[in-house]
Amino acid sequence: MLRPHGIGREDHELLTFTVSWLPYGGPPSDELLVRFGLTRERYLSRLRRAVAEYRRQIHPTTAARLLEVCDTRKAQASQAVPHSAH
Questions:
Q1: Which residues constitute the domain of residue 23?
Q2: What is the mean pLDDT of each run of 10 residues along the chain (86 residues)?
Q3: Does some domain include residue 58?
């Protein structure tokens, strides 16, 4: 459970949004763009920074799961190879 005391509004929104998507492995890219106007790469960067900055206000299990989203999604992005058109 997140404890919002001391967490900025935008970071709290980002963290709460991501927590709601944890059962599904994190939010889809289109939701990130619509909700926050962020690309997946920028979202992952902000999420990682927010978790690091507010680690003491976030339950340890939740923080670990949020970082798993960062690691899993980043790994998926690096494995995606664009197909060339023939």
A1: 9-77
A2: 71 94 93 95 96 92 93 64 54
A3: yes
